[in-house]
Amino acid sequence: MAGDGITAGRQRSRTSGGTGAAAGGLRVERVWTTEGVHPYDEVEWERRDVVMTNWRDGSINFEQRGVEFPAFWSVNAANIVTTKYFRGAVGTTVREQSLKQLIDRVVKTYRKAGEENGYFATPADAELFDHELTWMLLHQVFSFNSPVWFNVGTQSPQQVSACFILSVDDSMDSILDWYKEEGLIFKGGSGSGVNLSRIRSSKELLSSGGTASGPVSFMRGADASAGTIKSGGATRRAAKMVILDVDHPDIEEFVRTKAREEDKIRALRDAGFDMDLGGDDIVSVQYQNANNSVRVTDEFMKAYEEGTEFGLRGRLNGEVIETIDARKLFRDIAKAAWECADPGLQYDDTINDWHTNPETGRITASNPCSEYMSLDDSSCNLASLNLMKFLKADGGFEVEKFVKSVEFIITAMDISICFADFPTEKIGITTRAYRQLGIGYANIGALLMASGLPYDSDAGRNVAAAITSLMNGTAYRRSAELAGVVGAYEGYARNAEAHQRVMRKHAAANDEIRPVGLVATEIVREATKQWKNGNKLGEKNGWRNAQASVLAPTGTIGLMMDCDTTGIEPDLALVKFKKLVGGGSMQIVNQTVPRALRTLGYPEEQVEAIVEHISDHGNVVDAPGLKPEHYAVFDCAMGERVIAPLGHVRMMAAVQPFISGAISKTVNMPETATVEEIEEIHYQGWKLGLKALAIYRDNCKVGQPLSAGKGAKATEKAAADKAAAEAEVTKAVEKVVEKIIEYRPVRKRLPKKRSSETVSFSVAGAEGYLTASSYPDDGLGEVFLKMSKQGSTLAGVMDAFSVAISIGLQYGVPLETYVAKFTNMRFEPAGMTDDPDVRMASSVMDYIFRRLALDFLPYETRAELGIFTAKERTLQAQAEAAAEAAAVDVAVTGMASSAPVSSSTVTVAEIAEVKAVLPVPVKAGSSTELLEVVTGHASDAPLCFTCGTKMRRAGSCYVCEGCGSTSGCS
């Protein structure tokens, strides 16, 4: 085909499977590379030190120095790859030291397998394929899923799949096999899903005459097994999905399972047990290691619409043994989701209407994140494109390069099945026979924002649908070409008619796209061409792959590719933390924002002013010069302006017709969302043609990993109580604000003669001196820091820093503000100190301001900041009650002496009244925590089990920005 990056030479149609050489092969054309220049020689390389510390105590989790990466790779991306994907024991000669080694390990394996299995026409084509794939990985154009980087080219089994679907029948042997197979998958760090609907219900009899246990009871054993195995993997925590059909007699028990456990968690928490995520006592409750989903049918949804009864069928003979009110059950599902986020929904008839292999069997289950939906006992390997790499400077889209890139990726993914290993023989047989692939993308949220398009808009959905259609159409066209070279998938012959029908459905959906604008029009035009040519070729050759695409969460690999947004998600927030070379981090406004402002036509000076406003406030509301009609472009998943839940559902619905599988995404809903609103979202998911839908209501779970301060509790008040409390706060604040006088800061200099004290310190061997001078009334007013010799750069920087801090203190900046800003800052030197009160410091700044806090701040203020002396830590349990009783008095005294109000017009009681209801400041250690600080809203994402940093959502999973660990399976 003209313009294709890889063309099929001397194709020969084959109707059976197999991976042997055919009478031809693929001819590879150059796309990204430069003739005569190796991809590695085109970029500047540099050596870096990767040192990962625990933000809680400063201890070192990982250290590898002198690793080699391109200069344009971010610190975060390099850290993720070094800690997660480099193989070999750290500190040994076999340990990988360079990104070159990692890419070569994977790409060379793919090239060799491609040559051995007849994919390439000549050795020169194989070499060019090698170089093109290397260039794209090097420049973060795409990434394979994590198991490829973990395993390919190593001595470990060559497992390339991240997603697995298992099966279980109504027999004890099958149930025990399920436990074993799931454990093997968890051991490898991947996730699996299973439908338990074949197991007879607790309302049916056993052949011996007793009553069956039912699937929910067997879930208990699997949950305990997963909880034991998941934390022992060398790569990451595993994930699992458990599904039950809506007509199963135990469906009501299944729906309430996790909600009941959440009630137990609340009761145990109130009794004083540690029920936070990762807490010592959370293991005492059950069913916490799986996502639960109900598989609903069109029959049930129509009964819900009509308000009629729905029959629950026995598993032995399929007869109705009980009828229930469809609306009540649907409301119960919504109520359980409101209480604990489970269960999600999977829409069975929609899933199987797009099934390419119905003659082999129905699709009954999915992987844990719900994007891979295929036959039982099968697997899927994933790869995702970085869409921002195809956005032109003028706002256009690199259509031709996108098409060619999809061809390369699909070819590589299919080659991997030729050499891949699988955790069980059943999974290996099915996967080799149907060769399911899952190409997808990340950064659609960033691309839309950079293009000046709101995520929740017809124009935004239009572009997303067009890109997805082009990707899937190209993938299937490439699959048809591969079938002409190395044969169609083994199961194609018996499913040919059904497969062709689904291809026609995809093409028809593409014809329904009504592009708006030149960019969308160009993309849709090419997508139409790909579907037309691909379907024509597929009718002749068949297809090499039963499935081609999914939209995965792209957690770790999204960080590897330096993506601002994961999967199909919008931007999490407009501000984030950026890691710096040598350690530490800084808060920045996402780089997509200024690009979007320029696209919208704002001059550079306005761009700078708006970015500064966002940096200060975390949102665009009232940004200087920003037109209100452009606010929606910068709406995010969290923050002041949040994308409405239905906006997320509409985006999923726009792209679903162009995905072989489904979409990993959770629809976030505010804490104030009602059961009725969740029910409506579930219903709209079915009406709009989604295959799966999960919701998450903020703070619906007890396990709050981030407290707002000492003794902070997660509220469970109803919406009306919350509104009343907010009104009370507003009234109290207004009462004080009315009395505030206009005020300008005045510098209060220290007297010529003042008392001071000097402390010598050592942080990881780096020595220095801290001199602090006080006002006569004991308030800190001056700081001097000495490190290194006079005249050195470090000494000069420390002198300047000391002057800046001293002037700030003299102008009335509270010391606790500096302490909150500079403690937990991480950079070298970091480690042990010689101070018994501060045994570990994550940097010199961290130590200095902890020491100042201990010397000059009252206990109550330090308690809010989490800073204690060694003696206080020892006696903290006994002293806590007394300290809390005295906290308000001490804090009010400090507030009255420093607050910019007239003491004659504002009473101490009024200040205390406001202080009691205002939120306690918190520190931020990740983008999610930063957003919580800016917006005042909690996000109950879990803490990373590897490094302790707050994780952020990526699809229906979570990803750690610090070390790249994920809670899912991508």
Outline the biggest β-sheet: 10 strands, mixed
CATH architecture of the domain at 167-353: Alpha-Beta Barrel
Round the Cα radius of gyration to an integer and report it. 30 Å
Mean pLDDT across all amino acids: 85
Keywords: Cobalamin, Cobalt, Disulfide bond, DNA synthesis, Nucleotide-binding, Oxidoreductase
InterPro entries: RdRp_reductase_class-2 (IPR050862), RNR_2_N (IPR013678), RNR_lg_C (IPR000788), RNR_NrdJ/NrdZ (IPR013344), TSCPD_dom (IPR024434)
Protein name: Vitamin B12-dependent ribonucleotide reductase
Cofactor: adenosylcob(III)alamin
Task: Provide a descriptive summary of the structure in words.
- Helices cover 42% and strands 14% of the residues.
- It has 970 residues and is of the alpha/beta class.
- Among the domains are: 167-353, Anaerobic Ribonucleotide-triphosphate Reductase Large Chain, CATH 3.20.70; 756-917, no CATH class.
- Its cofactor is adenosylcob(III)alamin.
- One of its GO terms (molecular function) is ribonucleoside-diphosphate reductase activity, thioredoxin disulfide as acceptor.
- Belongs to the ribonucleoside diphosphate reductase class-2 family.
- It catalyses: a 2'-deoxyribonucleoside 5'-diphosphate + [thioredoxin]-disulfide + H2O = a ribonucleoside 5'-diphosphate + [thioredoxin]-dithiol.
